[in-house]
Amino acid sequence: MINLFEVNETNKMIDQENLDVRTITLGINLLDCADSDLEKLNEKIYHKITTTAKDLVKVGKEIETQYGIPIVNKRISITPISLVAHFDNEEAYISIAKTLDKAAKEVGVNFIGGFSALVSKGMTKSDRMLINSIPKALSTTERVCSSVNVGSTKTGINMDAVKLIGSIVKETATLTKDDDSIGCAKFVVFCNAPDDNPFMAGAFHGVTEYDAVINVGVSGPGVVKKALETVRHADFGVLCETIKKTAFKITRVGMLVAREASHRLDIPFGIIDLSLAPTPAIGDSIADILEEIGVEYAGAPGTTAALALLNDQVKKGGAMASSYVGGLSGAFIPVSEDQGMINATLAGALNIEKLEAMSCVCSVGLDMVAIPGNTKETTIAGIIADEMAIGMINQKTTAVRIIPVIGKDVGDQAEFGGLLGYAPIMPVNQFSCDRFINRGGRIPAPIHSYKN
Amino acid sequence: MKKSIITVVGKDKVGIIAKVCTYLAESHINILDISQTLVQDFFNMMMIVDIKDMEKPFETTVEELNELGKEIGVNIRIQHEEIFNQMHRI
């Protein structure tokens, strides 16, 4: 029998500690839309998205009211466009991006992810055209998100792509310089990208997936932080047990939403992404959890260990609550979207090198990091290559979402607004990696990829 | 049977239960169980109700209970019971 205490506990988590389901993402396969006629292709894509997703937002809202749990985002991920479209001019890809934008507006989702290419080993003509069109596509659309997978443990790192992305990031920043280069906030570079990630900007509907699928991303850093406040002086055993129990409860809520959404939309359920994802709201921060565990600021000595244990306990607790866990599953450590991370950066506790180290033990990598606008393209490519190498060698997913804010320098701030928050510009190591990036070719797969 | 949970939290005063129960009766919502405590003047009630005969959409009930809460000066919410079952039971 349900008791008053449990009901109050749940509602307190929702009301005061920002417990929410971060996102329901509807993955849609677009492979059957392929057509050599651009106009027909655009039509088919628009039709498929708007029919498959027509009830997504409505059902999301219904679930929200009936259970009293906020579902922050309803989103769509699609088959990487470079697999669906094959054209020899960039304009064609830009027109597809505009179609996606229009479809997203029609069904009322705030982002659509999958303007993507998978080039971990090599680039096809269509991949290259798509990547070249990214700056224009992202600066002329509102809701389209883009990602490129440039490496994997099995294939190594495509350094030609990394070099190209360095200049693409810079160009995207330049084209959106009036809005603090916000275009870059909608673009992610991956190593070992999962096929079922519900989180933007890196979401796409992988080729290993169903025709359509419901993936859910859970969150709740505020709830974990609050739970940890009650065991402030306890040892690591108690600390871990507390995180595990909380993660279990959070994940069960996500599971309920996923099951309901899947049932009501009559679309199979894919995975729960067990993540702690922050927002700029006070009390919804990963950095605050790290500080509650015992470091003065995120970035202080001990931070990587604290993050490692947090991440692991979240997975252990969540794995009991759902049998189908996927996506990125881990703590997100974006800078601009997390008030605690912003504070740590302003205090001088956090820099790019420490963030890189932290990304070895959690999901994603350098996320929403603002750097000076005059940073060289090769330097950006170098930063990306470092993060990709961490993913490749450690058989994990890593990503980079970095924003060279044109016209701003260390000491300034970039304002992105809404859930994206704001970010102090971080200093970048000034030494050159030109010769390294300009070599071209591919870094071979590591020895432990030859498992068979 | 279709169970939902109603929670009422706020400063105690005369007539809270009466008003909530009248609304439920008029909406054909059957009360299955009530538990209530007072913590330092703070009224804290949980009801388990059956909404099987309720004619209006769930969303409307959520809104109307919200309004009623504002009238009496307390916080009223109704939620499907599943969220609590899922969260607290293995």
UniProtKB/TrEMBL annotation, chain A:
The source's superkingdom equals Bacteria
Query: Which residue ranges does UniProt annotate as crossing the membrane?
Result: none
- Family annotation (Gene3D superfamilies): 3.20.70.20
On subunit structure and binding partners, the annotation says: Homodimer.
Q: What family does this chain come from, according to its entry?
A: Belongs to the UPF0210 family.
**HAMAP family per the UniProt record, alphabetical:** UPF0210
| Annotated PANTHER family | UPF0210 PROTEIN MJ1665, UPF0210 PROTEIN SPR0218
By what name is this protein known? UPF0210 protein EDC19_0614
Q: Which organism is it from?
A: Natranaerovirga hydrolytica
From TrEMBL, chain B:
Lineage top rank: taxon: Bacteria
Q: Where in the numbering of this chain does the ACT domain appear?
A: 5-79
Q: Name one Pfam family in it.
A: ACT_6
- PANTHER family xref list: UPF0237 PROTEIN MJ1558
What NCBIfam families does the database record attribute to this sequence?
A: PRK00194.1
The UniProt entry's sequence similarity note says: Belongs to the UPF0237 family.
Protein name (Swiss-Prot/TrEMBL): UPF0237 protein EDC19_0615
